[in-house]
Design a protein that fits this description.
The complex is a heterodimer of chains A (676) and B (202). Chain A is α/β, with parallel strands linked by helices and 676 residues long. In chain A, 29% of the residues lie in helices and 17% in strands. Chain A contains 21 helices and 26 strands. In chain A, helix 7 packs across helix 18 and helix 8 runs parallel beside helix 18. The longest helix of chain A has 21 residues. Chain A starts with a strand and ends in a 9-residue tail after the last helix. By secondary structure, chain B is of the alpha/beta class. Chain B contains seven helices and five strands, in the order ααααβααβββαβ. In chain B, strands 2-1-3-4-5 form a five-stranded mixed beta sheet, with helices on one face. Classes of the chains: A alpha/beta (676), B alpha/beta (202).
Chain lengths: 676, 202
């Protein structure tokens, strides 16, 4: 611990920290542009100058290591003058186009020049102008505004792991650009927009849409992948204008993926805004009463076991729970599932379907073994964490398959189930590595769980880890990488059916009525089934439906989601559903009322408390009924990682124009020099 | 000086020839394992020498791959230093010093000669594409001002006529004799040396 004085306030800080951090500890604000907590220190904007005793010149506090007994002053005329001088230099070439700049209102340079700057410039020469640069479909550039803080360069190199942005030229002619002005090949690229302290890099899809003070800000969570990044949704009236990251050190730190940020324009397209009934292959608008009556008569005329239901990948837990209750209580039937494929899930224990080591745990791990997973596309933020672990600790990463560039180097194996068997029978080098590792992480992707021998392999892996005492009080090496926001929540609620294979029966057209709650990924040939689709977007599910019940998207209703680590988080209502559409739980509740003249729940609170009770009970029971793990035979298979198209992984993303543009810009992937 | 941009017409391929490769490997081997990226500046210069005094984009890519570093990093270095030419400058690359001492001694006459013999504008190839010229800052030979540099050699104590003579030679693809054009050896005083008389090779 070091003791130093900042403006005569005594502070004590850890060794290795900087003067700027000491000032922050003392509650003194230091203006800065280039310094960012999560990035390496550059020290090139000079805005953080402070006075240090015995130093004739002001020092850049962000780059000056704090030392014992330092006496720092930040409120003297000396510092004020230094800041004014720096500000004047920064503004010498910066255009005064704030009225037409998208950063206006949330611009560091604007705010700090108001606070620390001078009101006029002595720079009488022509300002430097820089041609615009192309940086892909997400980032709009106006490089004349650039103050060369190099935050974007450092982000791309350090966090995103794609060294594609750089500073070319020098002095006044220095320019920030991607290599030969190609789109940045990263799924985290748009974070440079947040990092840019000025309006040089702004959001292309959001260009000239709104001013920050006009927007209603709602803190919520994201559902584009199972990570559950914390986000802020900014709405202007009904429309979701943009999505920004919120800081959550346990999950997404400060970053969000491009899909999280930009799929939001999908909330405006392809929306289902009124109930529809299909007559002669054509959808016609209907009222809620009409559709409920038809559904009621259909349900009443069908035999019980001919009804089935599927919950989708974006539905919140309340919807999942009430859907289950509707089947259990109203229909007296348990033909429901949340899986759209033959994925193996043993939900007798919760650890069998969550990411047990946690996202924070990645940084403590000393060996990461990916089996059937491509975290870069399945959980981008989690991949950034693995990269962070690699950069900081040189964590060893092994992948069963060659999954291309993961932004960090990893050892590639042949992708055969036989090799999994060899490793987890303790027969080769990697087995020894796993045994000798303190905190190994085995990351099992959905692709493995979809194999025919998934059960065998899963049990093999788990038993091997158990046998070698890798499960300890503070470490659980078993990790399932779920891809969709609703997956873990649905498993927690027990919305799956291991008794009969619903999918097979559906494919052989055994059901009369199929109720899809936001489920668009089922692959079967429709024959005579009567299909009810409830959801927010007109996609595959709605196409085959006979009745459409318009529901809400994640920004239009309060709802819980459990992320892949099993962390339960609430998404808050930022906007309201379009047209006649209702919140999803309400639709099912009202349908139940029509069927039985009794609502399932009187209100949302009752639903929530019932749901939490159910989850609690389930988890208590699970720890009691511990089943013996039986091991079926292994088949020789090649594990292929089947990825959903990254930019089209769910209905919202599929309806997003920005996602289409992103996809097009990456179709002609060229080598970048960062591979290998 | 404004930002230099890579040339529009770029060659398709680039590879070190055997002598360049040998030289490059020698330089790379000076750095410890994993730090071979430090050799980037020297390698760029080798590439420039091999490729008629300029570095095409493919050469930067080639060097990036050779040193296992991102393309943009090599590009950054190449655009930063003014000694790297990013567009063709001809087999004979003429740099005329126009900093104060040379200027006082008549560097503008040398520039005139360039304009007459080589090309109307700076950084423009001559008609036969064999040479180009540019004004540069001090080359450190002020004692022998005015002077110019052609590739690796200095031509000193020039005036307009002598410069034109040199240019005519290089336009005929002959290499003129480097050094002083007023007959003095190195930077000796004009009327023979006055000190260190007893040391022969001083």
């Amino acid at each position: 611990m070091l003791k130093l004085k900042v403006n005569d306030i005594e502070v004590e800080i850890d060794e290795g920290l900087t003067v700027l951090q000491a000032c922050e500890k003392a509650g003194v604000e230091i203006p800065r542009f280039c310094y960012h907590e999560k990035l390496s220190i550059a020290g090139n904007c000079r805005m953080c100058l402070v006075e240090m005793e015995k130093s004739p010149k002001p020092v850049a506090s962000c780059a000056m290591p704090a030392a014992e007994g330092m006496n720092i002053k930040t409120n003297t005329p000396f510092v004020e003058k230094a800041r004014k001088g720096v500000m004047e230099f920064l503004l010498a070439n910066h255009p005064l186009d704030c009225p037409v700049c998208d950063q206006g209102g949330e611009c560091d340079l604007q705010d700090q020049s108001m606070f620390y700057g001078v009101d006029k410039s002595r720079f009488k020469e022509n300002k430097r102008a820089v041609p615009e640069k192309y940086m892909g479909p997400l980032i709009k550039t106006q490089m004349t505004r650039c103050i060369h803080c190099t935050r974007c360069v450092r982000f791309a190199t350090e966090i995103a792991g794609v060294s594609e942005i750089g500073a070319i030229g020098r002095g006044e002619d220095m320019q920030i650009t991607t290599y030969l002005e190609e789109a940045m090949q990263s799924e985290l690229s748009a974070n440079v927009i947040d990092l840019c302290p000025v309006g040089a890099l702004t959001s292309k899809p959001y260009v000239f849409e709104a001013r920050p003070w006009e927007l209603k800000k709602t803190e919520t969570i994201d559902v584009m992948d199972a990570v559950g990044s914390n986000v802020r949704v900014d709405t202007y009236e009904w429309e979701v204008k943009r999505v920004l990251p919120l800081i959550n050190e346990d999950i997404n730190e400060e970053w969000i993926s491009d899909k999280t940020r930009y799929a939001c324009d999908g909330l405006l397209n392809q929306r289902l805004d009124t109930p529809y009934i299909k007559y002669n292959d054509k959808f016609e608008k209907a009222s809620w009463d009409e559709v409920f009556k038809i559904i009621k008569s259909k349900f009443e005329n069908a035999s019980k076991d001919k009804i089935c239901g599927f919950v989708g990948d974006l539905t919140n837990m309340e919807t999942g729970y009430i859907f289950k209750e509707f089947f259990d209580r109203t229909l007296n039937n348990s033909n429901y599932d949340s899986r759209s494929d033959n994925r193996f899930v043993d939900n007798s224990e919760r650890e069998n379907y969550i990411f047990n080591s946690t996202i924070n745990g990645i940084e403590d791990s000393d060996l990461i073994f990916l089996i059937g997973a491509n975290p870069r596309y399945e959980a981008t933020i989690l991949n950034a964490r693995i990269r962070k672990a690699y950069v900081n600790n040189k964590t060893k990463v092994i992948s069963l398959n060659d999954v291309g560039d993961l932004t960090y180097p990893y050892e590639k194996l042949d992708g055969q189930t036989q090799s999994i068997k060899t490793i987890f029978e303790g027969l080769n080098e990697i087995s020894k590595d796993i045994i000798s590792a303190n905190k190994p992480m085995i990351v099992i992707g959905e692709s493995l769980l979809k194999l025919n021998s998934a059960k065998h392999l899963f049990n093999l892996i788990k038993n091997f880890l158990k046998k070698n005492n890798k499960f300890t009080d503070n470490w659980n090496p078993l990790n399932i990488l779920s891809c969709d926001a609703a997956t873990v929540g649905n498993f927690d609620l027990g919305i799956l059916n291991n008794r009969i294979n619903l999918l097979e029966e559906l494919k052989s057209n055994k059901f009369e009525i199929v109720y899809l709650a936001g489920q668009d990924n089922l692959e079967f040939n429709k024959k005579d089934e009567f299909i009810i689709y409830q959801g927010s977007h007109g996609d595959k599910g709605a196409e085959i439906a006979d009745i459409i019940l318009p529901g809400s998207a994640y920004t239009e209703q309060d709802g819980y989601f459990t992320n892949l680590e099993g962390k339960i988080q609430k998404a808050h209502k930022a906007s309201y559903p379009p047209g006649e559409a209702k919140e999803d739980w309400q639709i099912i509740n009202e349908l139940a009322e029509v069927m039985n003249s009794r609502k399932l729940f009187n209100n949302k609170e009752e639903l929530e408390s019932s749901m939490f009770n159910y989850i609690k009970l389930q988890q208590e029971n699970k720890s009691l009924n511990h089943e013996e793990i039986e091991t079926p035979n292994l088949q020789n298979e090649k594990l292929n990682i089947k990825l959903k198209d990254y930019y089209f992984s769910n209905v919202i993303a599929k309806s997003s124009k920005t996602m289409i543009e992103c996809n097009n810009s990456k179709l002609n992937l060229k080598s970048t020099g960062t591979e290998g | 000086m404004s930002l230099r941009r890579p040339a529009k017409n770029q060659p398709e391929t680039f590879e070190f020839n055997s002598s360049s490769l040998e030289e490059a490997n020698k330089i790379v081997s000076k750095y410890p394992e994993g730090k071979q990226q430090s050799a980037v500046m020297a390698l760029l210069y080798i590439a420039q020498k091999q490729n008629d005094n300029w570095i095409p984009l493919v050469a930067m890519k080639y060097i990036a791959k050779l040193l296992d570093m991102p393309y943009i990093k090599v590009y950054e270095v190449a655009t930063f230093y003014s000694m790297y030419n990013l567009s063709p400058v001809g087999k004979y690359f003429i740099q005329v010093c126009t900093t104060t001492p040379c200027m006082i001694r008549g560097a503008n006459k040398l520039v005139e000669a360039c304009k007459e013999k080589i090309s109307e504008k700076e950084n423009e190839l001559s008609n036969d594409n064999s040479c180009s010229w540019m004004e540069v800052e001090c080359l450190g030979a002020c004692v022998n001002a005015p002077m110019l540099q052609i590739n690796d050699d200095y031509y000193e104590d020039l005036d307009k006529e002598k410069t034109i003579e040199i240019f005519e030679k290089i336009l005929k693809d002959e290499t003129p004799k480097p050094g002083s054009y007023r007959g003095r050896s190195n930077t000796e005083p004009e009327n023979n040396r006055k000190t260190l008389m007893d040391i022969k090779n001083a």
